[in-house]
Specification:
The complex is a heterotrimer of chains A (176), B (415) and C (388). Chain A is an alpha+beta fold and 176 residues long. Helices cover 51% and strands 18% of the residues of chain A. Chain B has 415 residues and is an alpha/beta fold. The chains are: A alpha+beta (176), B alpha/beta (415), C alpha/beta (388).
Chain lengths: 176, 415, 388
Amino acid sequence: MSIIKDVQSGKKPLKRAYVAIFLWFTGRAIQAAAKVDREVKKEFEKLPENFTFSLGCLPDGPWMVVGREKGVVKYLGGDSRGRPVQVRLAIKSLDAGFLILSFQESTTLATARNRLITDGEIPYALAIIRILDIVEVYLLPKLIASLAVKRYPSWWTPARKFGGRIGVYTRTLLGI
Amino acid sequence: MLLPDYYEFCCRVKIVAGHDALEKIPDLLIERGAKKPLVITDKGVAGAGLTDIVSRAIGDRVDAGLIADDVPPDSDLRVVNRLARLYRDNACDAIIAVGGGSVMDTAKGINIVVSENAEDLMAFSGVGALKRPLKPLIAIPTTAGTGSEVTQVAVIKDHEKHLKMAFGSYFLLPDIAILDSRMTLTMPPFITAMTGMDAMSHAVEAYYCLQKNPLSDAHSLAAVGMIYRYLPLAVKNPEDRDSRLAMAVAACLAGIAFSNSMVGLVHNLGHATGSVCGVPHGLCMAILLPYGLEYNLHKRANVMAELLLPIAGEQVYLATPPEQRAQKVVSLIRGLNENLHAITGGRHARCLQEIKDREGKPSVPRDILPQIASAALLDGASIYNPEDTDYEDNRMVLEAAWEGKPLDRTRVKKG
Amino acid sequence: MNSAAVFAFTCPVKTNSGNKALENLPVELAGLNAVNPLVVANARAVGSKAVRTLMGAFGDSGMTLGLFEGVTEATDLGVVDHLKNICLEKKYDAFIALGGGKAADVAKVLNLAVSLKTPDARRLLPEAPVRKRLLPLVVVPAAGADGLETSQLACLSRMVFSSEWLAPALAVLDPRLARAKNGIQMAATGLAALGRAVESHISADQNPFRKAYSFAAIRFVRENLLSAVADPGNRKAALAVLNSAAMSGCAFSNAASGRLHKLGQVFYDLLGIPQGVIMGMGLPLVLEDALREGRYDLAALFQPLAGDDAFAQTPAEKRPEAALVLLNRFLEDLRSVLGKELPKSLREAGVPGYRKEEILDVLGQDEDGPYLRGVVERMADGERERKG
């Protein structure tokens, strides 16, 4: 017998499932926020037609893909299906993805900790980060969201915050 | 010293520094199995006689006679391809880049083409596209400021297709950086001043921006102290070789710090001001640095306070109550700008309205500030700034920096 | 900075430190163009849990890893030669050394033999210059680390290999692996880091690049070693100690081998005493001599040891002595936690007289021989104990 063993790397089904579900949720929420929030809408309008971006984990996913089609922002599932992706936000490992999507590590901290690789034109990537920040404010209770973003927008009107939140949630769950 | 929950740090560049560092080049090349380097530079550097100094120092132990001195001030894809052909046609086996940022970027671009046998440079843009070491690249900076001899990024422009390609990889780090005082001895005082302040902005921003870590901190602290001490000396006595070498070393330390910890608002607004108004990058950095500190002070006061000791020394540090130390750092950096303004006979501008072009006309008219504030939203440095920034924030900081008044910190939006 | 001479500094090691650092390995290896790594571990020293943690970090990557977990203190060039043949056959394209000390030594020399396709690794000569970039090496220091993992040094079969190319491309410091077996093992890691960092920080041929590493290393040991030794569950302190060990190796690679390092090395090679234990014992003696002779820049030690406030409050001329006082107090504090486990003298360490003679013989061959032999004599029955 050789003194060197060959070891097949294992699987992480639970973490993978969790990350996949939260990516699905985030993708649908972005689609919803693009209809409900004027700032998100504006950010998307500045992006080119057919613009597509993805967010996910290295080395082997899961991913979520969001794109603009005929002016409408759509969650396109977990695979870009051959569409060219202009911006790719890649989390360096599934475990780091789990830390971020289970809100143990905010997006800001994850950036500070070098967890993300941004690939693509910088101005587009920045627009995506601004969109993700706004969506986080809608989705999360203030306590968590204020950790997740650098500066919690306390100057938002209650109508925008609460009205928007209901809209984003309903549309996310219904997928409209 | 703070240990972050997670950090990464990397600078694989071998640094060789001294008054006679250039003389080491033949040994360094031979160690790496290279005998025939292609030397690339620009007309300004060659015209100042710097490539002659390099050639003389190299001597005839390696064949460094092939010199391309026509790198344009703005890196260009066609030039990269042409010089790559020159490299191949002459069977070169290493690259020596003598100059500033554009020469370094061009050298990195050539290195990708010749090492990967690439037809289309575009295929190697983006993160992670390069997978293996490239040909030996020796970087010889001729300004003490940019730190591009230790950065892992390159920007090459395709002027025909109006594209800007960004390359990022640890394999783009030069193998060796040579810091030799002879390379900056002839730099005029006002350029010395602003490039030196560029280095200062790297060291200081690296110390308070988001990816800071113990190793980037140690590099920042060393750089900040050296720059504060030696920059006025180098500006006052351009031929003082010790100050020149100290500045080259400090700029390199600062480069290592910021390429690992990243930079924030100062660079964010500085890049935008540079691209909208075409003013020198270093000058923007010098002017904006105190404002970057002030804008982020409510989030990073403790960290900024730690800069006081290396800047001002023990006496001032002890005489300043802990809660005032960050503010003191801001005023000392303003004071340094004032000092440089005085030594250069007013050529080192202290605020945006003082920047003048060759004809003496103001380069940054006040009514262009909104345009700069919008342009800054497209720049990546904002990601690493401790506090969030939007258009209004950018505008507020720019207005203050234009007038040269300290930032009204009560107006900074705190979430 | 000594501006008269040309100086060089190089640190080819990337550092990844902290929570889930191991999980980044698949991405890091891909960046180094490696898909088929071999893990080299001293399983008995680091424990099987550490091996599982490392292998588990590759979960979901789809990779297959080679695993050799049989490194021991006795592993020699013969074993390396055997491993080399398997590696060439199985085409491993990177090495991951798990654990402190020996595992890293074996991985470095194995990398050399595999990369150069040496016909017989037993004939490798330390003097032969390496002119070639080797395959990527990752070190994952764990319990028992001595800081040399990140250095360009490898010691095997009583030979010392040294080359820029032997240094690892990446050091992964993960809190899950930072915990030591016991207080004394943690202390040994910290003191080895402190010893080498101190020597590199004060030696004559200074440069600010190296000083950045030694400064951070000294400050981290000073701020964290006591907590890490007193409370083995303090992961953050343990990780900080591991950080300082990694930094000390980078600084050390760029300095001439110091006297403390030589002492630590010889006792470890001949008697298997952890290097840090001996370096901690010798540190006050070597520094006292330096202070008396005014040889090294002891004042430079004071700032990283004392912190900014105390540094600013102490007049410049008092700093060398103050640094020594602080260091002695620090060692006393460690001893008050560890008691006799951290010996003060060779006698307390249980080194019999005839073994001491052996050590003296070996040291006699060193250029610093006469001095080092004197130090060993003073260490023998604890000069400080008698004095104090």
